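[09:14] KT: can someone run the structure on this one? pasting the chain below
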Amino acid sequence: MSISQPEPVRAAMTLDGRRLSYLDFGGPGRPLLALHGHFNEGRTFTHLARALFPDWRVVAPDQRGHGFSDRGPDFSREGYVRDAAALIAHLGLERPVVLGHSLGGVNAYQLAARYPDRISALVVEDVGAEIDDDLSFCLAWPRRAPTRTALIEQLGDAARYLTDALREYPDGWGLAFRPEDMVTSVGQVNGDHWDDWLAGDCPALLVHGTRSDTLTAEHAKEMAARRPHTQLVELATGHTVHETDPTGFAAAVRAFLGGQFLGGPKDVL
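[09:31] RB: done, structure tokens below
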């Protein structure tokens, strides 16, 4: 008998006096914690959650300073990792797979490095072990606009990447994050994280967009070669693989998870 997929539930936990919001896509499957990148929020993984149901229960937080979550005291590496670990404990998730895109990918492999006994596997989407990124372009984005249409017009080409982050406030339309926070956050992400990437040996999948301007093919191959039990999948996309090719990304993740946990791969890539 087929299992009907429930509607995702928006919930929150209180952590050090602030709200950490998350989407729980539900279902009877094994837990998978999905961590988004800068400018984004948990609902970016809606397609993936539907594709993995019912074998996997996806939980996708809005990380600090994003979406419906509060900003928090800082945007440090340890702060992001503590938030993820606290959510795992709050929901009683037993050794989840942790998946992350960009910022979320670094958070995911640093979480596995610091709490190796709590994580069963990693999926890292298009981010490296050495990072030198610049998000200062977002400081030119408008703080408020009188209407949603006006905000989209002022955002220009960037608007197509920010659909989930548009919000109506008492003083007009704006974004669900502060651009200056994103600049601060990426400054904390930048650096050499090889020690964290190599710290664990749980099964890992690294997904690389071959047209990415964030992760080069050479660096992706080196990451996969140096870390035990790591597979590399390349898809013909840019940096946001899960949005540009949602079907291909879901198939790659499902095949990896099937091979690790469900008795064999479910798809042929």
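[09:33] KT: thanks! DSSP finds nine helices and twelve strands in the chain.
[09:34] RB: yep, looked fine to me
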